[in-house]
Write a structure and sequence with these properties.
By secondary structure, this protein is an alpha/beta fold. 44% of the residues lie in helices and 17% in strands. It is built from 13 helices and 8 strands. It has helices at 20-33, 48-53, 69-75, 102-106, 110-113, 115-122, 140-148, 162-181, 198-211, 224-231, 236-239, 244-260, 276-286; strands at 5-11, 38-42, 84-87, 90-93, 127-133, 151-157, 185-193, 215-221. Strands 3-4-2-5-1-6-7-8 form an 8-stranded mixed sheet, sandwiched between helices. Helix 8 (162-181) links the parallel strand 6 (151-157) and strand 7. Helix 1 packs across helix 12 (244-260), helix 8 packs antiparallel against helix 13 and helix 9 (198-211) packs antiparallel against helix 13 (276-286). The chain is globular and about 50 Å long. Residues 57-61 and 276-289 have low confidence and may be disordered.
Length: 289
């Protein structure tokens, strides 16, 4: 790993609508607001993280990026030629339409899945955190993010099928890339929490039982301001700095930072065992109706 990068987080979930990109964008904004230097890598061909950050920098119109992470992955070079400064303390390696061809261009061999790691190693800029927004599917791009990261962060929305989706993801990772998982810490964060509903509180209890200490204590509450911020192309820390969404993401950033501080006792990550799918199904079946 590049010694100029302190920590690499891959935000990952196969299930759509879980707040994956929202978490990646606003966690990065929170790190920046706390004085850290952050690189956001958009590996999702839908380019939602790129659109959600591309309005923050001076002169940015939110249009398609001229150069994307695809070019860096193909050339296995440092990321500097494709980086965009999108806010104070935040650089973006943007996505674009060319990433839709990543499966053809990268392939599934070991060399193709190590390209992002190589790009980070060859990048000369210094970052406290690299936040990777992975696609909502398993393939060469997600495997590049998995291989490059130190920690897998799984956003899990408060919903009936959420644990089932997580179980599918964990079983897939164990089946296809088991050898890498021993090197990664796997943590989860609850998103779209509505504290006014009994259902949400009950699902939250099921999530605590499922993840144990691997679930971050911070919960990301449902708020329309998060969607509004993305539509303006800025993180919530810029759009609504006094609001609940900003407060939640700052709390998550602080919790993550505390777990990574030198000398601290980091909370354990989730251990993927043979029965992970059974655990998720049991939680789903026994949970609230």
């Amino acid at each position: 790993m590049n010694e100029r990068v302190r920590r690499v987080l891959a935000v990952m979930n196969q299930k759509g609508g879980c707040g994956k990109t929202t978490t990646a964008i606003n966690l990065s904004g929170a790190f920046s607001a706390l004085g850290l230097k952050v690189l956001v890598i958009d590996l999702d061909p839908q380019a939602h993280a790129t659109m959600g950050l591309n309005g923050a920098g001076e002169g940015r119109a939110g249009g398609p990026a001229e150069r994307t992470i695809h070019q860096a992955l193909m050339s296995r070079s440092g990321l500097e030629p494709v980086l965009m400064p999108v806010d104070e303390g935040i650089d973006l390696a943007p996505s674009g339409d060319d990433l839709f061809f990543a499966e053809r261009d990268l392939g599934y061999d070991d060399s193709g899945e190590a390209r992002l790691s190589d790009c980070l190693r060859l990048t000369n800029r210094t970052y406290d955190y690299v936040v990777i927004d992975c696609p909502p599917s398993l393939g060469p791009l997600t495997f590049n993010g998995l291989r490059a990261c130190d920690e897998i962060l799984i956003p899990v929305e408060i919903g009936f099928f959420s644990l089932n989706g997580v179980g599918n993801l964990l079983r897939s990772l164990r089946r296809y890339r088991k050898a890498w998982l021993s090197e990664k810490r796997i943590r989860a964060v609850a998103t779209m929490f509505d504290r006014q509903t009994t259902f949400a509180r009950e699902v939250m209890e099921e999530m605590r039982a499922f993840f144990g200490d691997a679930l971050y204590a911070t919960m990301i509450h449902r708020t329309v301001k998060l969607k509004e911020a993305a539509s303006f192309g800025v993180p919530i820390t810029r759009y609504d700095p006094a609001g609940r969404g900003c407060e939640d993401h700052l709390a998550l950033a602080r919790e993550i930072m505390a777990s990574h501080q030198a000398g601290s006792v980091a909370a354990p990550g989730l251990v993927i065992g043979e029965d992970e799918g059974d655990r998720s199904r049991h939680a789903l079946e026994s949970g609230p109706r």
